[in-house]
Amino acid sequence: MALKDVFKKRATVRIEEKKPQKKVEPKVEVKKPEIKMPKAKKTTKTSQVAWKVLESPHVTEKASDLTAKNEYVFKVTKRSNKIEIAKAVEDIYSVKVDTVRIINVRPKKRRMGRTIGTKKGYKKAIVKLHKGQEIEVLPR
After folding, report:
1. For residue 53, how many other CB atoms are within 10 A of its CB?
2. Rounded to two decimals, what is the model's pTM?
3. Which residue in 8, 73, 81, 95 has the fewest CB atoms around it within 10 Å?
């Protein structure tokens, strides 16, 4: 029986003494004067992404004829869309873009003797700028 008593909880009766209650004083919050700092300019990721979106200017006879109409042709990444392309051109060349048209150039089949292969396809964008603005694609 002695072993069983060890594991049993003993019911002890405690007589709680009444403690004197302390008076709680309300805490006074001291407000610090707010110092207004000038807002830092947000660094946009478009300038970092812009170089990844535009691969290279597409220089052909047809593209050079379009410069007279204030339109410029660029090779762009496969996943880029019109909005990203417009922001990239505006960031890199600091011009205002009017419209963007996109063309997917399909891969072409090529043969070398018996071996059949494909030429890599790409995506190109025709970017139209506002009147009076121009880009120097190839420096002279």
Report:
1. 22
2. 0.63
3. 8
